[in-house]
Design brief:
Blueprint (H helix, E strand, L loop, with lengths): L15 H9 L23 H14 L2 H11 L3 E6 L19 E6 L2 E6 L13 E7 H12 L15 E3 L13 E4 L1 E7 L7 E9 L5
Parallel strand pairs: 1-8
Antiparallel strand pairs: 2-3, 4-6, 5-7, 7-8
């Protein structure tokens, strides 16, 4: 009291007149042992339902088998994306071959063999239609999450672009990169979660009709 509370003006001494007033009011005067002692803050109370929800969310993230089952059940086999195609300039027509088609005579061992020259048209190459922009693994994740969000349990699935792999050989000419696709067509992708088998799906990129 004398060395701590009184110098800091946290407490004062009672005068004789104040003490007589207290006695007249029949007040009990005793020491408060909790005075100046900081009480520990009590933790916030939480309802059993909220605790169960936290445990449920954490449990789903740690259960790859259940996550795999939800994706297999809810995500369709084919995911369709529409993109604006890049129209290639028409190739010029090749000039007709005016060389006469005749007979060629070869002399082998004193005998004449006649072979007819045949003209074969070049085989057409597979037409690859590039698109403006791309369909990335992030776009695929957004599409999958949109489907999963319609289910109460599926909405809690955690999925990122790193969990999807383009299961095609990277080829710039075909518009295939490690994490994105840049051409019209059907492409194989895998959803890979730790501890379970990959989930295969088809990404179909279709040309978006342009307004005339």
């Amino acid at each position: 009291m004398r060395n701590i509370y009184f110098p800091q003006r946290k407490a004062i001494y009672v005068t004789d007149s104040q003490l007589r007033d207290l006695n007249q009011k029949d007040l009990v005067i005793e020491r408060d042992f909790n005075f100046g002692v900081e009480q520990p803050a009590s933790p916030p109370s939480s309802s059993p339902d909220s605790n169960a929800q936290v445990v449920d969310n954490a449990g789903l993230n740690e259960q790859p088998q259940r996550t795999s089952e939800l994706i297999e059940q809810l995500v369709p086999q084919e995911m369709v994306f529409y993109r604006t195609p890049i129209l290639a300039a028409p190739e010029p027509e090749a000039a007709p071959n005016t060389a006469p088609v005749g007979n060629t005579i070869n002399a082998i061992g004193g005998q004449d063999f006649v072979s007819q020259q045949q003209q074969r048209a070049p085989e057409p190459k597979n037409q690859i239609t590039k698109i403006f922009g791309s369909v990335s693994t992030a776009d695929m994740v957004d599409a999958i999450k949109a489907v999963l969000a319609e289910d109460e349990e599926g909405a809690r699935v955690v999925l990122g672009p790193g969990d999807i792999v383009v299961d095609e050989e990277a080829d710039e000419e075909r518009g295939v990169e490690a994490d994105r696709l840049k051409a019209v067509g059907e492409w194989k992708v895998e959803i890979r979660l730790k501890g379970v088998q990959p989930i295969r799906r088809t990404v179909s990129i279709k040309p978006q009709e342009m307004d005339s």
